[in-house]
Amino acid sequence: MTGHHMFINLETCQMYCLPENYEVIDSSLDDISRCLRPEFSQAQIASLDLNATLARDVHGVAYLPGFCGLNNLKHTDYINVVVQALAHVQPLRDMFLAENDDVESAAKRRPLVRKFRDLLRKMWSKDNFKSVISPHDFVQEVTAQSSNFKIAKQGDAVDFFRWLLAELERQLGGIEESFRGEILVETLQRRTHLTKSDVEWTRTETNTKFAYLTLDIPPTPLFKDSRGGNIVPQIPLFDVLAKYNGVKLTDSVKAGVQSRKRYVIKKLPRFLIFHFGRFLKNNFSSEKNPTIVNFPVKNLELKDQFAFSSADYYSQDHPTKYDLLANICHDLPAGLGKDAQQDPLQFGTYRVHVRQVSSDQWYEIQDLHVAETMPQLIGLSESLLAIYVRRDATLSS
User: Fold this and answer.
1) Residue 109 within a domain
2) Euclidean distance between CA atoms 132 and 46, whole angstroms
3) pLDDT tens digits, 118-156
4) What is the residue-wise DSSP string for 346-371?
5) I need a labelling partner for 233 at 20 to 30 A (CA). Which of 122, 132, 169, 374 fits?
6) In the predicted model, is pLDDT for residue 84 greater than 80?
7) CATH code (residue 147)
8) Could you give phi then psi for residue 206, rounded to 5 degrees?
9) Cα–Cα distance between 366 and 354 in angstroms, integer?
């Protein structure tokens, strides 16, 4: 018959034939519904990390659910890497994949929650028509809700990560619970403009919640190598973790007040995030510190690295051993170094490393490019955010 057209309701996935306006129920159309609105049972969600079976799209291209490439909508790679990393944080992922009443209720009222939920479900679906996914709807909602993030303008992945977690927590709740740790900050302060040499320090203690720990990377050396290029040093992770050993004092001066801070960990979260402070921003320019921080992919033991407020914290009830789950890194084009005039944030690109739990295989994802990689190479990247998961929270140890 001519002049008849099939239409689908994007909310209910019901199909109708117009102009007669009758519903079409045909099992041959189910694959369209599964692609448009993927659904997951509790059993399927529980087995996601154990699945190593490749799916195939309608063109016969194989892909591994959960490790799909995302389209770069012109300088939106900083959004892609954050979504890829969060898609492998099990509690957050499971919350959005399941038919959760809280999520469904918030999704009806909050477009950001709905678009993020739909994107995660497509990333983990085995019924996609294409092996790559466009985050267009989600990115559009992000740009609509925040003027700090725009299509066609490169952004800061750390800023977006911070904003997305805060917005999902505000609009839905229960997001930061897995990331939230507790730290005791001891602050010593005195005014620097006073001439007396015996000015006393004022001491305060504050209990603070944290979603990630910022690690300060030491400045790069001023010396050049034999060819006149900048020397890129390498330091172990444990050197920058010394900030939280309960002994080291971190100094700063602001508005005529000298501050010294000492940090003591009170509680470590299930998912521990390290932010490597690579970018130094001021009113005129932005510089990137290219120092390589070598960090372990497995068995990161923090018992001897951190100072805990309670001596019996590291016990059976509070394990302190972590495995790397995801790593977001930033790359600059060749020749764009510290002496260049360009903003490294605007001219750099992002990629992410994520681990397939059942096979212990690592993948490097950069927009549409998905490839296997070796764990030895991950610790040599210019990492910005590293997400670790506590050993008692992993499916395989």
Assistant:
1) yes
2) 24
3) 999 999 999 898 999 999 999 999 999 999 999 989 999
4) HH-EEEEEEEETTTTEEEEEETTEEE
5) 374
6) yes
7) 3.90.70.10
8) -135, 130
9) 11
Q: Give 20-31 pLDDT, tens digit per residue.
A: 887 888 777 777
Count up the domains in the chain and report the number.
2
Say if residue 91 is in the same domain as residue 28: no
**Spatial separation of the C-alpha atoms in residues 187 and 202, rounded to whole Å:** 8
Task: Please tell me the total number of residues recorded for the chain in this structure.
Answer: 397
5's tokens: 């057209």
Within 13 A of 304's CA, how many CA atoms are on the CB side? 4
Single-letter residue type at 111: P
| Tokens of residue 132, six digits | 């790559």
* Dihedral of alpha carbons 42, 48, 49, 52, sign: positive
Q: What are phi and psi of 103, to 5 degrees?
A: -65, -45
The pLDDT tens digits for 285-329 are 778 888 999 999 999 999 888 877 666 565 656 788 999 999 999
The pLDDT of residue 320 is 87
Residue 367 φ then ψ, to 5°: 60, -115
| Residue type, position 41, single letter | S
- What is the C-alpha to C-alpha distance for residues 43 and 92, in angstroms, rounded to an integer? 17
| The two three-digit tokens of residue 384, written as one number | 């910005």
One-letter amino acid for residue 67 of the chain: F
**Whole-angstrom Cα distance, residue 369 to residue 301?**
33
One domain, residues 7 and 101: no
* Alpha-carbon gap, residue 330 to 385, rounded angstroms: 10
Q: How far apart are CA 385 and CA 273, in angstroms?
A: 7
Rounded Cα distance, 248 and 360, in Å: 36
